[in-house]
Amino acid sequence: MPESTVQEFAEDDASYQAWLRRHPAGYIINTPRSKPANYMVLHRASCSTIGDYNKMARPGGFTEREYIKICATDLAGLRAWVRQHGRPDGSFSSICSLCKPSA
Prior knowledge:
Layout: E1 6-9, H1 13-22, E2 27-32, E3 41-44, E4 67-72, H2 75-84, E5 94-95
Parallel strand pairs: 3-5
Antiparallel strand pairs: 1-4, 2-3, 2-4
């Protein structure tokens, strides 16, 4: 099985949204820039809350202000990432209640 590639997007909404288009079945962790272990929320790449601009999420709002996105095509890569960033059990702080990704 090939190793999962995890990509971190900060300061680059255009590249992040291109990743979403290329990997519609992928997974995303939404986290503040400081990457606190108590806020690593798992989403599906298709989730509108982390991919669609709206009144709250204006251009630049996904990776260019307070939050960054950690992206992978499978959960194993994201579990490894959270382990390296303060969650030794590989869990996520929460799972999006809208897109309900399987964790």
